[in-house]
Design brief:
The complex is a heterodimer of chains A (about 300) and B (about 290). Chain A has about 300 residues and is mostly helical. Chain A has helices at about 5-25, 35-50, 55-80, 85-105, 130, 135-160, 160-170, 175-180, 185-210, 220-235, 240-255, 260-275, 285-295; strands at about 110, 115. In chain A, strands 1-2 form a two-stranded antiparallel ribbon. In chain A, strand 1 and strand 2 form a beta hairpin. The two termini of chain A are about 35 Å apart. Chain B is mainly α. Chain B has one domain (about 15-290): Orthogonal Bundle (ABC transporter involved in vitamin B12 uptake, BtuC), CATH 1.10.3470. Chain B is about 75% helix and about 5% strand. Chain B is built from 12 helices and 4 strands; from the N terminus they run H-H-H-H-E-E-E-H-H-H-H-E-H-H-H-H. Chain B has helices at about 1-35, 40-60, 60-85, 95-115, 140-160, 165-175, 175-180, 185-210, 220-235, 240-260, 260-280, 280-285, and strands at about 120, 130-135, 135-140, 215. In chain B, the strands form 2 sheets. Chain B has a two-stranded antiparallel ribbon with strand order 1-4. In chain B, strands 2-3 form a two-stranded antiparallel sheet. Chain B is globular and about 60 Å long. The chains are: A mainly alpha (about 300), B mainly alpha (about 290). At the A-B interface, helix 4, helix 10 and helix 12 of A face helix 4, helix 9 and helix 11 of B.
Chain lengths: ~300, ~290
Amino acid sequence: MDDFALGVLTNIGLFSFLALSAYLLLVAGEMSFGQQAFFGIGAYAGGMLTALYGWPLPLAALAAMALGGLAQLLVGLPTLRLRGLTFAMATLAAAEMFRILFELFHWRVERGGELAGPDGTQGFRGIRWIFEHGIEPADYLLLVYALLAAVLALLLWMERSRLGAALRGVGLDPELAASVGIDVRRVKLGVAAAAGALAALGGVLFAHHNTYVEPRNFDIMLGVHSLAYALIGGLGTALGPLLGVALDIGLLESTQYFHGYRMIVFGGLVAVLLVFRPRGLLDERMVTWIRQRFS
Amino acid sequence: MLADLVQNSLDGLAAGAAYALLALGFTLIFGVLRRANLSYGPAIMFGCYAAALTHQHFGAGLFMLALVTIAGAVLAGAYVERLCFAPHREGSAIAAMVASFALWMQFEELAALVLPGHLYAFPMLHEGAPLALGAFTFRIDALVLLAVAILVCASLWWMLYRSRFGLAVRAVIEQPTAASLAGINVPRVLVRVFALASAIGGVAGYLVVASNGQITPMLGMWATLKGLLAMMLGGLGSLPGAVLGGLALGLIEAHSQWYLGPQMRDLIAYLLLFVLLAARVPWMTSRSAS
């Protein structure tokens, strides 16, 4: 495989984590415009731990996930009682605050005779852990997809468990869910923490793949894209968001067919698709139909 | 000190007048559809780009450019309404919102295709020195913006509270089912409100672009974010709230920029929105059904 194809596939994997975090919240009935913030927190925290303090990547990723989960929990605590657009705007406000804080964040540390670390709007260069440890692009691709497979296995198992039923119940009708004894607030806070951790994991992997991040990477465009990925792919299964990411990055960004017209084609396709399938390609009905066919 | 305060407030009010118009458009659409139109700003940008192209090719005058901007915004708005809101009227609010985001991407790429540079000059409303009055200066274009905003608000108030069409609109906002039973053609009201909101957005877009004297592809995102912010600050779904929210946003931005710089300006506006939403102040969550 050439470097270009490797890069495209790696990107699909990376952004799938972000799309999955938007998906989890959508399934729980909440629309977030702010998942990019936790992706960004993961990228900055993970990058700083490996590049500035010499942590190994796995440990840095775990710490970044904890931080991302905690951050989304803190944002969720006062806002998860809001519904619909008010929740979406609260998450957007939080995410834009984080982006501006990244712009104001200077943490320069001497590493190997040079200053390294986040430098405000100048971004954060030299997140080179995978190169310093001789990890080839193909190996990194495998690592990303192994992690993605693990996350997916966990999510698919969760969806078939009682917890998954509780989650969908909360998303479809919180009052009804509460009346059958589901603790709606606890489910939502749990989902928020998981979504933050997932987005942060994607961010760590993104930072180490790119070696460079800047505050602009984590603006509203990224957040709404992840929401769109989850919705296009479908809200019926955790595989849906992956399909959404693969359609956009894989099919359109990487092929030259629609060069210069990509977003015009993709935007139109998405709008038309949603007319016919408002809960995405792999919606609940489609998933049930496929299950019946193959079981 | 005091002079700065007054001067900043004047500048803030002018910016706030533009925000108020954007918030009014958002609120009108949200009021009748209960959905946020993320493509609102990009549709306005479409109108402004149409005007910029007209200016390049035909060198049209200011009034003509204003008309082209408004017509372009209404045309783009109609496209958004047909593709994103008409099909999801009874269905998913999230699907409608994501569809409107998809069209936002279309408008942005279209803008980059027709005018590939990052920045284009746009004929200024007024060139030359600002009006000096004692220690204070008034930018002529800011005065025009304020005057037009007041005019738009007054006409909108008259239309909504003194005309049959306005009665129908208010009925649809309050109780769509009852309005339909009373013989109001609800889909037609929705389409007209959408067109009205797009026209107001076109006015705001033209005034902002002609005051700045330039146009960039960031205009779409800027208009959507500022409009949403002002609408939410004033209380989702309230028209007087939208005007107050816009003016408040303009004033807060002007003062925080002056004392703390542009990054803190944006940070403070978002922080205020977040805190108000989290605190669930009564005027912000009373009509927030999605």
